[in-house]
Design a protein that fits this description.
By secondary structure, this protein is mainly α. The protein has helices spanning 13-89, 111-119, 127-157, 159-164, 175-212.
């Protein structure tokens, strides 16, 4: 911002006051214009961030439905496995013996949230809006870590089931095998059910965000 000297000499207090007043008004106008430009920039930044956040939440909500269907299928398989293994432990031969186990998990995205945070856009949003977005992404991270945890641990927890997958002859199993399989299936069953509870909260958060943010 440039401040230019008067074009002519200052001959009186009146000239000095007029010149000072001119400079002051000019500075105030310049500051007001700069503040207006900054405010407009911040509003655009916030608007773009909110569009990106809502788009990402909508995409994650769609992915959520796919993960939910997969988990529900996995849970049915586990419960069928457990029923068959309990029959075997009780010396009952299942009519159709077949152990099945599979687990897939698609992680949710948080790139729009990180971008809004790192660009400073969050700092110009209202506190109650920031709180709601933070709750959504906080629960999403919690759910995602639980799902990825099962995916990574299934090599250990689901190993006995994976070894027996597609084997049709229950006579291949010793009592020790049956107990190991039951423990494996019970652990996975508990973790999947717990994950479903976490996901129910996330579903509420997604729905509220898409309706009200």
């Amino acid at each position: 911002m440039d401040v230019h000297p008067p074009h002519g000499p200052i001959r009186s207090w009146k000239d000095f006051t007029l010149h000072l007043l001119t400079i002051t008004i000019g500075l105030l106008i310049a500051l007001a214009l700069e503040a207006a430009v900054q405010s407009l920039h911040h509003r655009h930044m916030v608007a773009d961030a909110r569009v990106n956040l809502l788009r990402e939440i909508a995409e994650n909500h769609t992915l959520y439905a796919e993960n939910l269907r997969s988990l529900q299928t996995n849970l049915v398989q586990l419960e069928q496995d457990i029923d068959q293994l309990r029959d075997l432990r009780a010396s009952k031969t299942p009519e159709h013996f077949e152990l099945q186990w599979s687990f897939g998990w698609d992680s949710y995205s948080d790139s729009a949230w990180k971008s809004a945070r790192d660009s400073g856009a969050l700092g110009y949003m209202r506190p109650e809006i920031i709180k709601k977005y933070s709750e959504v992404y906080g629960q999403q991270t919690f759910v995602n870590e639980a799902g990825v945890g099962i995916l990574f641990d299934q090599g250990k927890a689901g190993a006995p089931l994976l070894v027996m997958k597609d084997r049709k002859d229950s006579k291949e199993l010793s009592p020790g095998d049956i107990q190991a399989l039951l423990l494996s299936a019970a652990e996975l069953d508990g973790r999947v059910k717990q994950l479903l509870l976490f996901m129910a909260v996330l579903e509420e958060d997604y729905t509220a965000a898409l309706q009200h943010l």
